[in-house]
Fold this protein.
Amino acid sequence: MNLMPNKAVPLGSVFQALVDPTRRAVIARLARGPASTLELARPFAMSLPAFTQHMDVLERTALVRSSKEGRVRTYTIESATLKAAEDWLAGQRRVREAGGGRPERRPKPRPAGKRR
């Protein structure tokens, strides 16, 4: 699945894709360079069809891109999507550090077991 370069993926979808530890491990591996489906799947105790579902999620959210040569599908990391997520997190960090997220401004949690 190749996405158009200017097609933005909602950040919520990106973060949702990264919730899964398998997908985070794949992203960490691809940070070192391109890899084939079989190479990426090797460390995981799951069937190849189950693993390719993870890759489909990463590709739909534009975190990875794939190319196929013969019977081998190779994946690369999509840096622009990761950068967009990093930029959003950095902005949230700046707000927090500037005092916009002070604990005294947040509602206090109710004690456990008490309901209204």
